[in-house]
Amino acid sequence: MTQKVFFQIQLLRIKNQMTNLGKYLVIIGLIIVAIGGIIWISGNKSGWFGNMPGDIKIKRDNFSFYIPITTMILLSIILSLLMWLINKFIK
Question: What is the pTM of this model?
Answer without folding.
Answer: 0.52
